[in-house]
């Protein structure tokens, strides 16, 4: 108290103003974020509710936050009754692990090269990769190419073609470029080559961006199914988890189906619609592992890990 | 003569940082060059070779005959596209939805990341962030089902609005062409804001904390710190993402519009991808040539956007792609 | 430290999963390795594994499916079926061709012609002579309709093909459907026109606005989603008394050998029909969300039993609402009820533009769709075995296994040799998971409808009269009795006619390509109708919107399409004549 009295009146006023401003901001911000969370949480809870509901009952709709008629049937069906789920889980697991590691390494190395300010072919190589983001030969030429490279009917089609992603490289490059040159120069004075700089100086400082890209790539691999269908359609030993679930989820194909006026056979028509509950259960089952992985990565980009080491 | 001198001067000014190409420098960087070469070979095989497939846009491509045997039709496929009123309409739709989505998703994701960064309580911050990105994992089929459910005549939106006497009777939101783009943009925001914010959150961690400290010492308030420290710190990331996504405005999507659209709003809902599906990937008449022609058009436009915006960024001294 | 922890965690989980998967996937590995490598079975007989792709949505069978194994023992062939996922038929067929890896058997759906054009299919001709079971499926004239421009046959459509004669008990086609409780409430009146139909729906809804659980009723709804907008658009064709040619009316006023194609979109009946819908919409008798609802929402709505009437084809809605209709619900007064017992099942009404007209909503004969079917690909290493297998599938004992199941488990036989099922067996065959592990229809391979070769039973249980009748709920039986009908088709009471030689024309319009002016017009007409038909129904000024619609429609150049349709009718007529067809007097 005594100390406060000695501070000039002006400063107190200023501090008080700051404090109230702060409190109002915190309240507003918290309210906003909570509202935002509620709105984004709803679809997930809704899906969760459907997944635990009985199938015939769910068709009637009108389920919001809680199931109306509890049932574990849908989970039982997708996890234990579908052919290929186990093979799919196995393949998906491996492609996620291998794919993330190789892709992270490949992207990081390329980003490192492109972020070197003195690199002679910086612009050219950047342009070379930027183009790959927008120019695509389309599905058919790629298929034909993979066929000649013997990538179809193999596991490696999941790993090799998508290893380098220009988008991820650009994000990483930007981050790396933000790291002060002084560090690199100091190391080079001590005789460290480029690879030493990459491994022992840049990489430890890039944890947040590595975590981000790892998450992106892992989620991509975990969710991938289109490549499994396109390249390994008739090779069930290389199926992926998502492809197996997609076979259940898919209602798009049922609606694009054939054309007007046609009458389908009774047996064919009877088999089309997948119950909403099974779709919901498949969605939740897919989300769970990725959500479990998230907290391990989250610390790197939420808890404000600082690159204080940069400052000398 | 004079002109060229001026020109060379200017380039020199801009590329102050650019290293001189000398044998010595090349030797110093040999490892970088060698590794780059590997990447270039990889890129040529997996990205540039398939571009040879563009040839079929100038043919009436039939699988059985292959590229060698299919009939050449010159630019007929492009002529068909640009003489079709529907194609011009879908370009407009795709472009508008792409721009709306780019603008709002960027602004909202940045705002969300900054606001989240202001939260002091670690657990609150972590939980909010975890929740916010969850919808990213829902498929559009499920999200559209929920959006639909909310917007029907008995849905929650109509229910609230009629109870508040804002509407006298339920309004057919989904059948109104004027509302379609808004609904699409909001659905995107709903599903992807949390996910898009992840990159920005990671970028915020790279901002030197000393900057905040010195700003505080200078008497900067919270908003001033956001404005003068956080935002400039994010600037390179924002610019690079904006630049890249600029090339994606014509990839405004397929699934969402396809699932959310209906006969009444078809004139604003159909995108280029849906058009290709309708006209080129029709099982009865698989016209890969037409589909490829539309693909080439998209690529050309994207590259133009990228080059122009990259040039502007370069001029302004901002982060750029190449 | 943290990194170390994560790495060890990943390693640990890898180990756990790998040991788990290693022991669990081994047995299936040998089975699913695909290809044509023969696998030795217990008794030394070799079983060949084939793959099959159908460009349709469908459900995969479990590995080790019980009946699949039985059929494999008898035929030496096991087929792994794959269906369309996330692509449409065109994309799927295109990518299969490009990947160079084809299945052994394929139903290319709309992409069949592409497969043929690329020389990827094996001609049936020689094998037809070798395997009489297959040859027997169609007459020579019918087989000729399958011939492609090189003169060979590459596929056979497997559906709607009756052995002996068509024994359909149901009405699989289109109609204005109405809940039996509405008819019962009005004491089973005769309903012939749209006016009577909508009046009854309105009256009933006014008198009974809610279901026992408090759900408000919707008098009438209509699906407009994507290609299923036929629910809205093609009624004028039927209302004028014509059969389901799908794309046009074929007028035979000038005699059967002088057919004339007429556009049903511009007739007076069309205007009358849409004006009626417009009035009903204004009165609130039509679901306000009809124009924007998705198929899922539509089914959800029907499943609650609150929709009194609708226009649709049977297969499109009926199978998906059977389950919910048979599920007990609790009413607001605490009692339980079931929708089928309440009389929410639908019966078809054959409405016409004017009372007393004849109508052809139901088609009694088989409809031959030659545009796609089951085919053997050039990738199949042993085509002879593939055809032998397809032929064996038509042997009566195997056919019974496919559609009836195992005797004693899935059906019983009475003293007269008549097959029947118990309630439990019927429930089993409604369950997806039971079907996935037990039943094996090979539903896109050759099959019969109609009479069984034993002369007593039907080829498929759905057509067995006793099975059909036993499966009906009480109110439905009562309703049939009140109108003196035993089957849906009798209830509908369509005129019995022999199919015209060009019928059904939808087998042509479904496959029309956008290469020709007519094809482009057909596509544009569809787009225009998708926009304008719901608009005129919801319009507050019908006359001017109708005029605007007709103007927009005329801009699509429908005449180009009609000309090509006329040419196709003439062509089919000529073909029939060359086989000795003459116009009935």
Give the DSSP E fraction of chain B (strand runs of 2 or more residues).
under 5%
The helix-and-strand class of chain B reads mainly alpha
Distance between the termini of chain B: 29 Å
Radius of gyration of chain B: 25 Å
Number of helices of chain B: 16
Number of strands of chain B: 2
CATH class of the largest domain in chain B: Mainly Alpha
User: Which architecture of the largest domain in chain B would the CATH scheme give at its second level?
Assistant: Orthogonal Bundle
Note the overall shape of chain B.
Answer: flat
Looking at the overall shape, the CATH architecture of the largest domain in chain C is 3-Layer(aba) Sandwich
Radius of gyration of chain C: 26 Å
Describe the protein in words.
The complex is a heterotrimer of chains A (about 300), B (about 325) and C (about 575). Chain A has about 300 residues and is mostly helical. Chain A folds into two domains: about 20-70, no CATH class; about 80-250 and about 270-310, MetI-like fold (Orthogonal Bundle). Chain A is about 70% helix and about 0% strand. The radius of gyration of chain B is 25 Å and the shape is flat. Chain B folds into two domains: about 20-70, no CATH class; about 85-315, MetI-like (MetI-like fold, Orthogonal Bundle). Chain B is built from 16 helices and two strands. In chain B, about 70% of the residues lie in helices and about 0% in strands. Chain B is mainly alpha-helical. Chain C folds into two domains: about 40-165 and about 370-470, D-Maltodextrin-Binding Protein, domain 2 (3-Layer(aba) Sandwich), CATH 3.40.190.10; about 175-360 and about 470-580, D-Maltodextrin-Binding Protein, domain 2. In chain C, strand 1 (about 40) and strand 2 form a beta hairpin. Chain C starts with a helix and ends in a 7-residue tail after the last helix. Mean pLDDT of chain C is about 85; it is low at about 1-40. Classes of the chains: A mainly alpha (about 300), B mainly alpha (about 325), C alpha/beta (about 575). At the A-B interface, helix 2, helix 5, helix 6, helix 7 and helix 8 of A face helix 3, helix 6, helix 7, helix 8 and helix 10 of B.
């Amino acid at each position: 108290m005594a100390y406060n009295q000695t501070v000039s009146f002006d400063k107190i006023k200023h501090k008080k103003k700051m404090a109230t401003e702060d409190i109002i901001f915190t309240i507003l911000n918290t309210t906003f974020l909570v509202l935002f969370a509620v709105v984004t949480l709803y679809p997930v809870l809704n899906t969760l509710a459907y997944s635990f509901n009985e199938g015939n009952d769910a068709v009637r709709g009108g389920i919001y936050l809680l199931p109306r008629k509890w049932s574990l049937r849908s989970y039982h069906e997708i996890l234990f009754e579908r052919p290929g789920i186990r093979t799919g889980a196995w393949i998906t697991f491996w492609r996620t692990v291998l794919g993330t590691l190789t892709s992270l390494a490949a992207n990081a190395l390329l980003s490192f090269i492109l972020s070197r300010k003195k690199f002679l072919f910086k612009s050219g190589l950047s342009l070379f990769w930027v183009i790959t983001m927008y120019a695509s030969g389309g599905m058919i030429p790629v298929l034909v190419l993979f066929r000649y490279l013997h990538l179809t009917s193999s596991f490696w089609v999941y790993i090799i073609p998508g290893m380098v992603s220009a988008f991820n490289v650009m994000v990483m490059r930007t981050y790396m470029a933000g790291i002060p040159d002084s560090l690199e120069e100091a190391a080079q004075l001590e005789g460290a080559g480029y690879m030493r700089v990459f491994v022992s100086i840049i990489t430890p400082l890039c944890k947040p961006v590595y975590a981000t890209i790892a998450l992106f790539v892992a989620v991509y691999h975990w969710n991938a199914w289109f490549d499994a269908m396109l390249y390994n359609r008739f090779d069930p030993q290389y199926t992926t988890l998502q492809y197996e679930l997609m076979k259940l989820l898919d209602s798009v194909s049922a609606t694009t189906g054939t054309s007007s006026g046609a009458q389908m056979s009774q047996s064919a028509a009877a088999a089309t619609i997948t119950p909403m509950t099974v779709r919901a259960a498949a969605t939740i089952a897919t989300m769970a592992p990725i959500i479990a992985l998230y907290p391990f990565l989250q610390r790197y980009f939420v808890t404000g890990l600082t690159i204080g080491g940069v400052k000398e | 003569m004079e002109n060229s001198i001026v020109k060379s001067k200017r380039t020199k000014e801009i590329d102050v940082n650019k290293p001189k190409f000398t044998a010595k420098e090349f030797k110093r960087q040999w490892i970088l060059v060698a590794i780059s070469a590997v990447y270039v070979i990889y890129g040529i095989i997996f990205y540039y070779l398939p571009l040879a497939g563009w040839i079929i846009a100038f043919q009436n491509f039939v699988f059985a005959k292959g590229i060698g045997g299919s009939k050449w039709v010159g630019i007929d496929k492009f002529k068909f596209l640009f003489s079709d009123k529907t194609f011009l309409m879908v370009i407009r739709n795709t472009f508008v939805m792409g721009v709306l989505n780019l603008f709002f998703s960027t602004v909202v994701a940045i705002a969300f990341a900054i606001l989240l960064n202001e939260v002091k309580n670690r657990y609150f911050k972590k939980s909010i962030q975890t929740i916010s990105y969850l919808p990213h994992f829902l498929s559009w089929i499920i999200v559209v089902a929920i959006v639909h459910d909310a917007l029907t005549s008995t849905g929650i939106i109509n229910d609230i609005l009629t109870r508040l006497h804002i509407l006298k009777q339920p309004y057919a939101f989904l059948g109104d062409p004027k509302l379609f783009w808004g609904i699409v943009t909001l659905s995107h925001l709903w599903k992807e804001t949390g996910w898009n914010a992840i990159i920005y959150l990671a970028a915020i961690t790279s901002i030197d904390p000393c900057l905040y400290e010195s700003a505080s010492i200078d008497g900067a308030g919270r908003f001033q710190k956001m404005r003068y420290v956080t935002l400039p710190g994010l600037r390179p990331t924002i610019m690079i993402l904006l630049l890249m996504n600029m090339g994606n405005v014509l990839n405004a999507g397929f699934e969402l519009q396809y699932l959310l659209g209906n006969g009444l709003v078809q004139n604003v809902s159909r995108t280029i991808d849906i058009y290709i599906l309708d006209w080129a990937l029709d099982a009865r008449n698989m016209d890969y040539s037409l589909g490829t022609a539309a693909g080439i058009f998209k690529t050309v436009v994207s590259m133009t956007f990228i080059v122009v915006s990259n040039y502007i960024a370069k001029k302004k001294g901002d982060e750029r792609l190449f | 430290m943290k990194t170390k922890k994560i790495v060890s965690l990943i390693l640990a989980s890898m180990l756990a999963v790998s040991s788990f998967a290693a022991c669990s996937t081994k047995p299936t590995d040998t089975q699913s390795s695909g290809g044509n490598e023969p696998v030795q079975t217990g008794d030394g007989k070799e079983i060949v594994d084939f793959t099959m792709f159908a460009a349709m949505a469908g459900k995969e069978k479990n590995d080790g499916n019980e009946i699949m194994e039985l059929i494999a023992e008898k035929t030496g062939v096991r087929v792994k079926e794959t269906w369309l996922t996330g692509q449409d038929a065109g994309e799927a067929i295109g990518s299969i061709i490009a990947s160079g890896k084809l299945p052994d058997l394929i139903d290319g759906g709309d992409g069949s012609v592409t497969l043929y054009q690329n020389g990827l299919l094996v001609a049936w001709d020689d094998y037809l002579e070798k395997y009489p079971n297959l040859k027997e499926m169609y007459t020579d004239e019918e087989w000729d309709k399958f011939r492609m421009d090189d003169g060979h046959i590459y596929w056979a459509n497997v559906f709607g093909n009756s052995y002996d004669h068509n024994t359909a008990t149901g009405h699989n086609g289109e109609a204005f459907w109405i809940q039996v409780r509405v008819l019962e409430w009005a004491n089973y009146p005769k309903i012939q026109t749209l006016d009577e139909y909508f009046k009854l729906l309105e009256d009933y809804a006014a008198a009974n606005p809610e279901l026992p659980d408090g759900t408000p009723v919707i008098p009438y709804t209509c699906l407009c989603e994507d290609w299923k907008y036929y629910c809205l658009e093609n009624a004028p064709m039927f209302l004028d008394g014509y059969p389901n040619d799908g794309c046009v009316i074929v007028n035979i006023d000038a005699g059967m050998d002088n057919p004339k194609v007429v556009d049903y979109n511009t007739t007076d009946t069309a205007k009358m029909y849409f004006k009626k819908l417009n009035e009903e919409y204004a009165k609130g008798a039509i679901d306000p969300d009809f124009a924007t609802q998705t198929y899922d929402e539509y089914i959800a709505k029907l499943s609650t039993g609150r929709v009194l009437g609708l226009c649709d084809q049977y297969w499109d809605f009926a199978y998906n609402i059977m389950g919910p209709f048979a599920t007990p619900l609790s009413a607001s007064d605490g009692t339980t009820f079931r929708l089928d017992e309440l009389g929410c099942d639908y019966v078809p009404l054959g409405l016409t533009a004017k009372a007393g007209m004849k109508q052809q909503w139901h088609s009694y004969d088989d409809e031959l769709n030659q545009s796609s079917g089951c085919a053997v690909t050039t990738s199949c290493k042993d085509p002879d075995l593939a055809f032998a297998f397809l032929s064996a599938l038509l042997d009566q004992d195997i056919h019974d296994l496919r559609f009836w199941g195992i005797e004693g488990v899935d059906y019983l036989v009475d003293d007269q040799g008549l097959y029947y099922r118990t309630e439990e067996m019927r429930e089993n065959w409604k369950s997806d998971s039971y079907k996935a592990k037990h039943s094996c229809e090979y539903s896109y391979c050759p099959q019969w409808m109609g009479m069984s070769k034993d002369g007593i039973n039907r080829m498929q249980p759905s057509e067995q009269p006793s099975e059909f009748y036993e499966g009906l709920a009480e109110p439905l039986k009562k309703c049939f009795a009140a109108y003196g009908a035993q089957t849906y088709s009798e209830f509908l009471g369509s005129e019995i006619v022999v199919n015209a030689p060009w019928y059904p024309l939808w087998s042509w319009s479904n496959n029309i390509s956008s290469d020709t002016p007519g094809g482009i017009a057909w596509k544009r007409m569809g787009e225009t109708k998708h926009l304008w038909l719901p608009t005129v129904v919801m319009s507050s000024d019908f006359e001017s919107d109708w005029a605007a619609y007709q103007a927009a429609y005329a801009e699509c150049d429908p005449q180009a399409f009609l000309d090509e349709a006329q040419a196709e009718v003439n062509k089919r007529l000529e073909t029939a004549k060359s086989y000795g067809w003459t116009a009935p007097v």
